[in-house]
Specification:
Blueprint: E1 2-4, E2 7-10, E3 13-14, H1 15-22, E4 26-30, H2 31-44, E5 50-55, H3 62-70, E6 74-77, H4 80-88, E7 96-98, H5 105-114, E8 117-120, H6 123-133, E9 139-144, E10 166-167, H7 171-181, E11 185-190, H8 199-213, E12 221-223, H9 241-259, E13 264-267, H10 271-274, E14 278-289, E15 294-298, H11 307-311, E16 317-319, E17 327-333, E18 341-349, E19 356-359, E20 380-385, E21 388-393, H12 398-402, H13 410-420
Parallel strand pairs: 4-20, 5-6, 5-13, 6-7, 7-8, 8-9, 9-10, 9-11, 11-12, 12-13, 15-17
Antiparallel strand pairs: 1-2, 2-3, 4-14, 14-15, 14-19, 16-19, 17-18, 20-21
Helix pairs in contact: 2-9, 6-7, 8-9
């Protein structure tokens, strides 16, 4: 999104025109920004055999999945429903990596039937997988490297108390299970967490997985997950993708020489590819001034963008309608009936009732975590592609709230019970 001639635009389209056409609240995604991030990652790892799997959980809209399929990359999914969405979007099942956590083995079997590639993160599931399939279905194993890395504690997934992955301290047990059941392991996977800054974290994880890989024959790839930091505030330090690409590629090539075979290196970026592409536009309903605080109450809340309340995440907020207004300090809050704050003590161009505000970096884990809390409708989604705004999800209405509810006729039940009594 750019400010041109005192007007915010996305791919040349005035943002206020998009909001007028589709209403607010609305999520708007810029495919040019997605391509920019994808190209940066490809260029950083141009010296190795690279495969990128978009982490669907960040933003699962079918049109976004189809867009990434069009770019020739694969998909990383964490549920059978995401796998089915990926196939519907056109991804070949063989290009979909299924990395669930704490699911039943029935879901694993359903994924095998779909033809997607299975990534196993517990010894229990590995044993069941071996009993069921032996060496007939290749798989990947997710390792827990015991590295504390990432931003908020809820997105740190590679430490010793994490539920994710098989501990690197359990490798002897893993190999016994593999040998007993003749399991065909062709990949190893590691993911330490999201929002890490230092390439040293990836290199530490790499050295741990390289050490484990030496004891596996027949590997075809090593998957390093993702977790690249994006900028949420102006001046934020982010993951240096070029430095990471250079250092990790060099270490990977050295390992492949030692291993005696050129392997593929996989990554599963989600937030990195879509976060900065997304903006969430809301309208100011009310300006409420108390003795202590000036509140901007908007037509949305944590039901649409839960990250600020759940992760204490910072999203930059802009007044799209009044970009040259005098600066004032506000708390921007939602309409949900509990503490529901998008941003505190934010210096914004003066906000008037009816002004449109933008929350930046809303492409990842915004709409995908939205709910109907307070029986509110989930918002519309719009994709800006080749200079045109396309509606990719309709705004919900009251019929959507009622759609799957089944009413009990309490009067009829009471009459039936009365009639049945002696």
């Amino acid at each position: 999104m750019e400010l041109i001639n005192n007007q915010y635009q996305i791919q040349g389209i005035p943002v206020l025109d998009i909001c007028a056409q589709f209403g607010t609240p609305v999520y708007v995604y810029d495919t040019d920004k997605m391509l920019e991030k994808l190209d940066t990652l490809k260029n950083a790892f141009s010296g190795v055999s690279l495969k990128i799997k978009y982490a669907a959980k960040a933003l699962t809209n079918l049109s976004v999945l189809k867009f990434f399929n069009q770019q020739g990359i694969g998909l990383d999914v964490v549920s059978i429903q995401e796998a089915k969405l990926g196939i519907k979007a056109g991804f070949a099942p063989s290009e979909i990596l299924f990395t669930p956590n704490c699911v039943s083995f029935d879901e694993i079997k359903e994924a095998v039937e779909l033809g997607v590639f299975i990534n196993i993160d517990s010894i229990s599931i590995l044993e069941q997988f071996g009993h069921e399939y032996g060496d007939t279905v290749p798989c990947c194993i997710r390792l827990n490297p015991h590295i504390m890395a990432g931003g908020n504690s809820k997105i740190q997934v590679g430490h010793i108390d994490s539920k994710f992955g098989i501990s690197v301290l359990q490798m002897r047990h893993v190999h016994r299970v593999i040998q007993t059941n003749n399991i065909k392991v062709v990949g190893l996977h590691v993911h330490t967490g999201s929002d890490f800054l230092d390439s040293e974290v990836f290199l530490r994880g790499a050295n741990i997985i390289f050490e484990a890989a030496r004891d596996f024959e027949g590997l075809e790839f090593i998957d390093f997950g993702s977790g690249f930091k994006v900028a949420y505030r102006e001046g934020d330090i982010t993951t240096n993708i070029q430095e990471l690409g250079q250092r990790l590629s060099e270490a990977f090539r050295d390992f492949c020489k030692e291993y005696g075979k050129e392997l593929e290196i996989w990554f599963e970026p989600g937030k990195y590819l879509v976060s900065e592409s997304g903006h969430f536009f809301v309208k100011s309903n009310v300006i409420k001034v108390t003795p202590a605080t000036a509140f901007v109450g908007v037509d949305s809340g944590l039901n649409h963008l839960i990250r600020p309340m759940m992760y204490d995440a910072h999203h930059e907020i802009l007044n799209i309608s009044n970009p040259e207004g005098a600066k004032r300090v506000y708390n921007v809050v939602g309409y949900i009936c509990e503490t529901d704050t998008f941003g505190s003590d934010r210096k914004l161009n003066e906000v008037r009732e009816g002004d449109v505000l933008a929350l930046k970096n809303a492409g990842a884990y915004g709409m995908s975590m939205a709910s109907n809390y307070n029986s509110r409708f989930r918002p519309a989604e719009v994709l800006v592609y080749q200079g045109k705004a396309h509606l990719i999800r309709k705004r919900e209405d009251f019929e959507d709230i009622l759609r799957n509810q089944v009413e009990i006729d309490f009067k009829a039940v009471s009459i039936a019970e009365t009639v049945g009594k002696p």
